[in-house]
Design brief:
Blueprint (H helix, E strand, L loop, with lengths): L2 H23 L5 H9 L15 E3 L2 E4 L4 E4 L2 E4 L2 H12 L7 H8 L7 H15 L6 E6 L3 E6 L12 H27 L2
Antiparallel strand pairs: 1-2, 2-3, 3-4, 5-6
């Protein structure tokens, strides 16, 4: 046996002994949830509702494992797919989630129509309207969706859609163009 082989064998035995000692001192530690926690940082990581922890959005308590939302004293049940979309948006913490990432995490990459995502987003927006201090979902045209959660006790302003600014600018440009055409017609008539 060469020196390198002996050193490798001793190092391997030391590593195995350290792993055995760690598992003996922490018998209830399961390495699988640790890998799922790491996986949750990805926007397209699959969402398993039974393993998701409860969380708060403003004054609402979201319970993914039961597919329910606690609003004050009342409860609202959500369809599992709608709850998956809510969890996917909440995981990203105020960052944009693309439609493709929603399809990957909520539908397992299956091909779904636009109406499936639109239905889930619409249902979540109706839920958000039940409380002023809950959350809002902002649509970023051709990019995706972003969940805006209110701090408990603070009313949430509905986010302005990025298309509102464009339509106001477009309307202003239309008025200016109409005035320019009208002024040109008046000057041409003299």
């Amino acid at each position: 046996m060469t020196v390198d082989t002996i050193d490798y064998a001793r190092a391997r035995q030391g590593q195995e002994a350290a792993e055995a000692h760690a598992s003996a001192t922490r018998p209830f530690l399961n390495p699988a949830p640790m890998s799922e926690t790491f996986e949750a940082a990805s926007p397209s990581a699959p969402i398993r509702l039974a393993r998701e922890a409860d969380f708060r959005l403003g004054a609402m308590t979201i319970r993914p494992s039961l597919c329910e939302v606690l609003v004050g004293e009342g409860r609202q049940r959500l369809q599992p797919r709608v709850m998956q979309v809510l969890v996917a948006l909440a995981r990203m913490e105020d960052r944009v989630v693309s439609r493709d990432a929603l399809i990957d995490s909520c539908w397992g990459g299956r091909i779904v129509g636009e109406d499936a995502i639109n239905r889930c987003i619409g249902r979540l927006r109706r839920l958000a309207q039940t409380r002023e201090d809950g959350f809002a979902i902002e649509t970023l045209a051709r990019v995706g969706y972003r969940l805006n959660a209110a701090e408990p006790g603070a009313p949430l302003q509905a986010p302005r859609s990025s298309t509102n600014g464009l339509s106001l600018r477009g309307a202003f440009a239309l008025v200016v163009a109409a005035l320019a055409i009208g002024a040109g017609a008046v000057l041409a008539g003299r």
